[in-house]
Amino acid sequence: MIEARMRGLAQALTLAEPTATLPNIGPRLLMHRESDALLMLDDCEYLMRVPIGGDWARFVCSGGSVVVAVGLAPLPAHAPQDVVESYVVDRVAEGRLLLGKTHVIPST
User: Fold this and answer.
1) What is the pLDDT of residue 87?
2) pTM to 2 decimals?
């Protein structure tokens, strides 16, 4: 059930398996305050809120690209950094982390 939902999310973001060339999924980020970014999904009227830090926000707002990753296995909420790093390495090795790069939507 979780995997099916995560695959649906990855499809809405047009992400690719880690063995593929990292796709540019286009501008999908809106900055909301210095503590949140909003991630746009294809064919969805809702935005996904992503908590961020100040350094990350400054990097992205200055034109930096970031990678969006969707894992197909659960990861505990508030997992410590070493658990997250191990999760990423293991899921990439298994082909169960879907990826794409994005950037901030230009303001008009």
Assistant:
1) 97
2) 0.86
What's the token pair of residue 6? 């995560």
pLDDT tens-digit series, residues 60-107: 999 999 999 999 999 998 999 999 999 999 999 999 999 999 999 987
User: At CA 30, angle to CA 67 and CA 80, rounded to 5?
Assistant: 45
Contact 16, 22 (CB under 8 A): yes
| Structural tokens at position 45 | 């009227």
**Which residue carries 């230009």 as its tokens?**
106
Helix (H) or strand (E) holding 52: none
Beta bridge partners of 16: 99
Contacts with 7 (C-beta within 8 Å, 6 or more apart), sequence order: 72, 98
Q: Which pLDDT score, from 0 to 100, does residue 108 have?
A: 64
C-beta neighbour count of 60 within 10 angstroms = 18
Pair of tokens at residue 47:
């935005």
Tokens of 80: 């410590």
Q: For residue 36, what are its two tokens?
A: 């949140």
